[in-house]
């Protein structure tokens, strides 16, 4: 049977359409802008045998400590009073270092601490042999703007467009209950910490390349608060506790996302509010690295997360388990369906 020129043209048209729309059978759909919330807990970072056999050895500054911890800058102020009380009641010398996830990760890998505290879920390279993660809880990440900004709410889609640089002025928002005349440029402010770990800001946009070229990047939480408070057109992100902790850096306010609030625990537990941090404690298990005192301390902290001051806004792991979040042992590993 002869093929006519019109049939040939139709074949080429359909082939081109399939190519540019990704319509071939079995082809993966376009990748979501949202990054992965967690890594696979079954994957463990390979380490040499001499490292595996290496015992825990504290830095000389820890002296004759019974337990040594390194906590990130979120968990340190939240847990320190509880740890100090526990140490006094049990007659233990507990040394607590304040750092970042990066600093804590380094101390854990060097095996100079019994417990490491993180504000992110573990990345693949954090899952070291003998190290087990226990989730304290989660905390909403708020989208923050200048207090004089009349915008009160945006959609998660608009938030992504803003941080990608696709929406340039506040007056371009369609969902907002903005006041007429608030037509000023948007200045995106970002703090791209823990790039290799899942969750946190990567729930907004998966990687740094997706953010607007004109984004003002800051390296510290106080600078995030300060830059937003100084610019009526700015938008950034941080947990609400840090807006209280660094209130001397300026005033900011939180936006609703899709009508849901970072201040409402039920909105986050149900994942109607989509952005959050995961707080974890990592502890050693096994011969030569396990510290019974450290295990009891972690158990105590997990049991008493509910007793933390309300301004920390940490939703305990126990409530997440009841709501259908996925756990492996004490570690949060997946969102609810």
Structural features, described:
With 337 residues, this protein is of the alpha/beta class. It folds into two domains: 49-139 and 277-334, D-Maltodextrin-Binding Protein, domain 2, CATH 3.40.190; 140-269, D-Maltodextrin-Binding Protein, domain 2. Helices cover 28% and strands 20% of the residues. The longest helix has 17 residues, at 5-21. Residues 7-30 have low confidence and may be disordered.
Quick recap of the structure?
The protein has 337 residues and is α/β, with parallel strands linked by helices.
Number of domain units:
2
CATH 4th-level superfamily of the largest domain: Periplasmic binding protein-like II
Shape label: elongated
**What's the CATH topology name of the largest domain?**
D-Maltodextrin-Binding Protein, domain 2
Tell me the distance between the termini: 53 Å
Number of strands: 14
How many helices? The count is 10
The CATH architecture of the largest domain would be 3-Layer(aba) Sandwich
The proportion of residues forming helix, as a percent range, comes to 25-40%
> What is the ordering of alpha helices and beta strands?
HHEHEHEEEHEEHEHEEHEHEHEE
Q: Determine the mean pLDDT.
A: 91
Fraction of residues in β-strands: 15-25%
């Amino acid at each position: 049977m002869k093929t006519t020129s019109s049939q040939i043209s139709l074949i080429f048209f359909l082939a081109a359409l399939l190519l540019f729309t990704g319509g071939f059978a079995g082809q993966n759909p376009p990748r979501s802008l949202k990054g992965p919330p967690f890594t696979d807990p079954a994957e463990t970072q390979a380490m040499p045998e001499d490292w595996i056999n290496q015992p825990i050895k504290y830095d000389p500054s820890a002296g004759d400590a019974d337990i040594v911890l390194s906590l990130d800058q979120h968990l340190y102020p939240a847990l320190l009073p509880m740890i100090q009380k526990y140490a006094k009641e049990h007659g233990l010398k507990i040394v607590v270092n304040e750092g970042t996830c990066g600093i804590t990760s380094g101390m854990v890998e060097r095996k100079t601490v019994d417990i490491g505290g993180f504000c992110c879920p573990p990345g693949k390279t954090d899952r070291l042999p003998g190290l087990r993660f226990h989730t304290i809880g989660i905390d909403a990440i708020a989208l923050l703007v200048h207090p004089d900004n009349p915008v009160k709410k945006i959609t998660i889609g608009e938030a992504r467009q803003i941080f990608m640089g696709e929406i340039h002025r506040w007056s371009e928002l369609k969902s907002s209950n903005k006041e007429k005349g608030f037509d000023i440029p948007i200045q995106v402010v970002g703090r791209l910490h823990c790039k290799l770990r899942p969750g946190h800001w990567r729930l907004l946009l998966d990687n740094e390349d997706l953010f607007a070229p004109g984004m003002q990047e800051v390296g510290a939480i106080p600078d995030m608060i300060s830059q937003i408070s100084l610019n009526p057109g700015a938008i950034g992100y941080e947990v609400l506790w840090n807006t209280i902790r660094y209130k001397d850096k300026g005033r900011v306010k939180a936006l609703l996302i899709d009508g849901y609030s970072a201040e409402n625990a039920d909105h986050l537990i149900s994942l109607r509010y989509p952005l959050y941090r995961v707080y974890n404690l990592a502890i050693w298990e096994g011969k030569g690295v396990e510290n019974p005192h450290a295990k009891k301390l972690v158990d105590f902290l997990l049991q008493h997360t509910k007793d933390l001051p309300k301004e920390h806004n940490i939703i305990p792991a126990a409530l997440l388990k009841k709501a259908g979040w996925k756990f492996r042992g004490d570690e949060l590993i997946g969102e609810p369906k």
